[in-house]
Description:
By secondary structure, this protein is α/β, with parallel strands linked by helices. The protein contains eleven helices and ten strands. The chain has three domains: 3-117, Response regulator (Rossmann fold, 3-Layer(aba) Sandwich); 123-232, 3-Layer(aba) Sandwich (Rossmann fold); 234-283. It has a five-stranded parallel sheet with strand order 2-1-3-4-5, with helices on both faces. A five-stranded parallel sheet has the order 7-6-8-9-10, sandwiched between helices.
Amino acid sequence: MKKDDIRILLVDDEKEFVESLSERLSLRKLKADIAYDGEQALEALKKEKPDVMVLDLRMPGIDGLEVLREVKKKHPDIEVIVLTGHGSEEDEKEAERLGASAYLTKPVDLDELLEVLKKKKLKVLLVDDEKEFVESLSERLELRNLKAAVAYDGERALKMIKKEKPDVMVLDLRMPGIDGIEVLRRAKKKHPDMPIVVLTGHGTEEDEKEAFRLGASAYLRKPVDIDHLVGTLHSAWNTLRKAKKRFDTAMMAAALAQAGARDMARDAMDEIKDKERDENDEQG
């Protein structure tokens, strides 16, 4: 899909904000329709389905989380990006559990929003030797608009990520040949920015501690609730994306300072601090 072919629906009751955002997107060759509340958004879906919905949470009538729940129930192929100025950590977790592709906060950097809008389906690599289980899981993830590939052992998984790195890996621990802990160790050594979610039915408390020590983003046990898994996958990817953005900003600040542009470097570092402060405020 070409960038200017993406159909976008902006859902927000703040008319001035959402109309301004629509105009800014049009300057980037992206056409966006507008719904000013949840009810309008759900009615709009009956006429024409967008590829992406950008959704506020706090609205009169049907709120954003309920809209998200309805959209994913009836149209799981629609990407939903939450964009809110009044969310909480609990809202973010619930949005990701319900299948939101990303969770952004106002005021939003337009380039960051464009990056998420242009993001294709989340690519997930499932690594598990239980063929029936992993093939069923792959199909269930595809129904929730994730692109899933399968590796039936650790050796195959390492070869696959060498050719093409997935956005997230879901990794069993007990496998013949190279076990999950060793796959995790090697994968994080080569790709430290790749989120890895452990999903196992035979792990121990020591395995869990070792997995987190090696850099696992989450540790889940079988059988797993599919909505909880989908939320965990999106959360893991979003967390790594935010960390990478901060790292890139810090590197830019260092380069500016070295070049003598100390005021610009200070502004870049202040941006990082402001983001961290906002997140800390949301958490408590």
